[in-house]
Design brief:
This protein is α/β, with parallel strands linked by helices and 328 residues long. The protein has three domains: 2-92, OB fold (Dihydrolipoamide Acetyltransferase, E2P); 119-252, P-loop containing nucleotide triphosphate hydrolases (Rossmann fold), CATH 3.40.50; 266-320, Ribonucleotide Reductase Protein R1, domain 1 (Orthogonal Bundle), CATH 1.10.40. Helices cover 24% and strands 22% of the residues. The strands form three sheets. The chain has a six-stranded mixed beta sheet. The structure holds guanosine-5'-triphosphate, magnesium ion and zinc ion (ZN). The site of guanosine-5'-triphosphate (GTP) has 24 residues, from helix 5.
Length: 328
């Protein structure tokens, strides 16, 4: 870590001037950039100005503050992007959204997966590996909690019918697109255009295959699904953000086995459904809005025709998914 030490010295306030005040460096001339991938403490960023790719490290003044893919940052130092050059990230712009997962059995650390994405694309294969509605539900909860718009993307339509899954998400008003390798990409392109979207889903569902089809020079590695276990091989090992040729950004992420949601409160989830939220204002204090609650206002609203039974039942399904880990 020699380079790091050199930079660290450069950062240290000079002793002889104003010994008791921290010198606040002025970064007015810093370039703005976005973090596209991270590898062993090295951050690959692209400059907003000209899209140049630059390798950077975290400046000491950031302390323990994390920098994640999707972060908008300010960089100083060697921003040439030349071979062996290293810039420094000196500031992280306040995040508009954060997609986070709570610690779970697979991963003991609570982490922010990506920052500033506005759409969560929940990718599930129609077969090989088979879709797990429970995981889709949990990812939906994460999207609503993060204030991101969800989109369910059902891949491998050459291997199965989407009808059953589509019917599950219709009452919630969640958009669903269906894709297959070498298929027509118009619908998914329209859904991604001019937005920052992050793909999540099990290993082997075809996230990287989709990214390669959408971004011609992406070169994301893809690999087969094990025929015996039906599981993917966790081919992608880190998140990467790529610019879409038709506008917007897409973030490919490693396959997940589950999605820890311990950080989510019912109230945060219900905010995503204003019609349900309105009704639940009449619930008894502490009502958890499940089908077993004795006087939940959702049941009264179904009885008097204000809400459809399908919508309330689908909402209760995703609510219940918060406490049912779908480990695969
Ligand atoms: N039959 C079929 N196979 C597909 C389709 N899309 C992708 N595959 C195959 O599914 C396998 C897994 O694809 P990947 O793109 O590596 O999956 P991934 O979601 O990126 O997996 P991880 O990186 O491990 O999370 C590869 O063998 C792909 O060729 C499809 O539409 N139909
Ligand atoms: Mg992949
Ligand atoms: Zn209730």
């Amino acid at each position: 870590m020699r380079e790091q030490d050199e930079h660290a010295q450069f950062e240290r306030p000079r002793r002889h001037t104003k010994p008791r005040t921290k010198i606040r460096p002025n970064y007015d001339d810093a370039d703005t950039a976005r973090v596209v991938t991270i590898d062993r403490g090295r951050y690959t960023v692209t400059l907003d100005d000209d899209g140049r790719t630059v390798t950077a490290m975290k400046s000491r003044n950031l302390g323990r503050k994390g920098v994640v893919v999707g972060d908008e940052v300010r960089v100083v130092g060697d921003v040439t992007g030349d071979e062996g050059s290293l810039a420094r990230i000196v500031e992280v712009t306040p995040r508009r959204t954060v997609l986070r997962r709570t610690a779970d059995d697979d991963d003991p650390i609570e982490r922010i997966i990506v920052a500033n994405a506005d759409q969560l694309v929940i990718v599930a294969a129609l077969a090989d590996p088979p879709p797990r509605a429970g995981l889709i539900d949990r990812c939906l909860v994460a999207a609503f909690d993060a204030g991101m718009e969800p989109l369910v993307c059902l891949t491998k339509s050459d291997l199965g019918s989407p009808d059953e899954i589509v019917a599950m998400f219709e009452p919630l008003g969640v958009r669903v697109v269906v894709t297959r390798r070498d298929g027509d990409l118009d619908d998914i392109r329209e859904a991604l255009r001019d937005r920052v979207s992050v793909l999540v889903g099990h290993s082997g569902v075809g996230k990287s295959t989709l990214v390669n089809a959408l971004v011609p020079d992406a070169n994301r590695s893809v690999s087969y699904v094990n025929a015996v276990t039906g599981r993917g091989r966790h081919t992608s090992t880190s998140a990467i953000s790529l610019e879409l040729p038709f506008g917007g950004w897409i973030i490919d992420t490693p396959g997940i086995r589950s999605f820890g949601l311990a950080h989510v409160e019912i109230d945060d989830l219900i905010k995503a459904f204003p019609d349900l939220q309105d009704v639940t204002r009449d619930c008894p204090r502490g009502c958890l809005h499940s089908a077993t609650e004795p006087e939940c206002a959702l049941d009264i609203a179904v009885a008097d025709g204000t809400l459809s039974l399908e919508r309330v039942e689908s909402f209760r399904r995703i609510l219940a998914s918060m406490n049912q880990k779908d480990d695969y």
